Model the fold of this input.
Amino acid sequence: MKPVSYALHPALRAAVAALALIMYSSIAAAQSVTLPDVHGLAYSADGKRLIVAVHDGIAIYNAGRWSKDPGPRHDYMGFTATKGRFYSSGHPAPGSGLKNPFGLIVSGDGGRTWEKRGLEGEADFHVLGASYETNAIYVYSHGRNSRMDHPGIYYTLNDGFTWTRAQAQGLDSTVHAIAVHPSKPQIVAVAAKEGLFLSTNSGERFERLAAGQALAAFFELDGEHLVYSLYDGAAKLHRHSLKSRSRTEIPLPPLTRDAVGYIAQNPADRAEYAIATFERSVFLSKNMGKSWTQIAQNGQAK
Done:
């Protein structure tokens, strides 16, 4: 009897080798993605990509895998996403030749290219929020510049062409984050050291909705609820109804000496949420916070 040969056909052997290379490359790519810090968290408009703005560009989580966006490796600060645009401030990548800091920049192609919207070389907005449907932008300016005479909250309804100062009566606290209603740009929330504050008249007057140190805020895309994080020795996440003014607590995964710094909702599946913490961990929930899956731990992709 002729002995059976177990040698692979050359074509099959090549296919197996190619598949192994693809699998190795995918694993290596995920392992090589790190989050040196987190400066923003958002979903793409189609809901397929979770976007994390970091010190050296944009990290992407898509279909269970991490990768680094091919766009420029800028240090994005105040990064936020609307239905059709990304807005950011921050600092240019080394060797780019761009003026530092950015002022306000905008991308209409998912972060591959960026356009200037003023205050280049003058302002670095670490606190920036934008309305998902209207593109109204609110920022907190820590100092004076050519368009902002005093420190404080300013907003623009035309991509930075003109800015209006919000009087911010009732808000006398360190500002940590700004969230803008998805369809009503006159409604804005501020997470601050002394609590969560809400304005319904473009920041002219604020009322405090919750006490304690508020760190992040996010308007759900239905425009009916406000999700925010608190820290009082332990991390907490709450959901506030704008209509009934009731509040419910959203369970969090175990966070030791950590707190939620960023919140995002998937526009294609609004039961899906993502949170990022100050210790650079990222979690996903498919059921509005009833359970969470960790996809990054202390800056290392999982």
The first strand starts at residue 40 and ends at 43. Residues 10-32 form the longest helix (23 residues).
